[in-house]
Amino acid sequence: MLEDPMTAVSSPTAWPAAYPHGYAVVDVETTGLARDDRIISAAVYRLDARGEVEDHWYTMVNPERDPGPVWIHGLTSDMLEGAPLFSDIAEEFSTRLEGRVLVAHNAVFDWQMIAREYARAEREAPVRQRLCTIALSKELALPLPNHKLESLAAHFGVVQERAHHALDDARVLAEAFRPSLRAAAAGGVRLPLHECRPLTEWTDRAVPRQQAGYGGYRPTSWRPARKRPACPYPNPGRYEEGKRLKQGMRVAFSGDTSVERDLLEDRATEAGLHVATSISRLTSLLVTNDPDSGTSKVVKARQFGTPVVDEAAFGQLLGDVEPASEG
């Protein structure tokens, strides 16, 4: 049982020295969830080392395209027409992020959207680490019915006023993060910090929309498909939790990743793993940051009992892959 975070860390000496010195609690609203979707609004609450609010900032962003699900975020084309482009606000955004840990609810999504926007603007986001409040709530074993922001807010008595409005969502998250951070400090919990790797290249190529089920054209970030060399090692079977990956294991990926998918697959291939494009009974492991999604790969993995890990765990496993058995 964790101590009362409000009393256990009242003394400066009780605060973990290894904890970050500042945080940027971020929320972005977007035109959708795909790689070529755009940010349409962003908010940042800057917090000090103990989670106290220093200031906050909000802006709408002209996505230069259809705003997507207006019924969710409430931002219409007319409202966004006069808003600045991301390249116009990138510098101000950077001042809010610099030297801080990016905190978000499902942080991998917010980070990947931000990283892509910076890459389009031919800049680099000054973020080196991120913290997902979903992961932190799991570390704290909070008794939540699910991992929605509204559930985390309700647990700490934080009132949401405008769900899916970037500024209010960031405020709610900042107010819920403060007691979470203090509970972690009181219990000596190691914060689930993950590396943020900025994109170093980006292309917005015009491709026929028919390829994506639309008419006309749209920009895309997809790189040309590459044929990977066949894995030279036999499949040793499924990954077992707590053990090492072994060369020859068949690994599949589902959903968005913070590291560009091609780069992640390259790393897997270089480690001697077989990158699979689909799930079968022979698949050793599925890598996904959203194991509760209803994608076909996640559904099949559930049916076949395929082991599942997130991107961060997979990255750690890649660092120590067992060589294939000889003979």
TrEMBL record:
Chain intervals for the UniProt region annotation (Disordered): 213-238
Gene3D superfamilies: BRCT domain, Ribonuclease H-like superfamily/Ribonuclease H
UniProt KW Nuclease keyword: yes
Record-level GO BP terms: DNA replication
SUPFAM superfamilies in alphabetical order: BRCT domain, Ribonuclease H-like
Domain BRCT: 243-321
Protein keywords: Exonuclease, Hydrolase, Nuclease
SMART domains, per database record: BRCT, EXOIII
Name of the molecule in the record: DNA polymerase III subunit epsilon
Organism the protein comes from: Streptomyces dysideae
Lineage of source species: Bacteria, Bacillati, Actinomycetota, Actinomycetes, Kitasatosporales
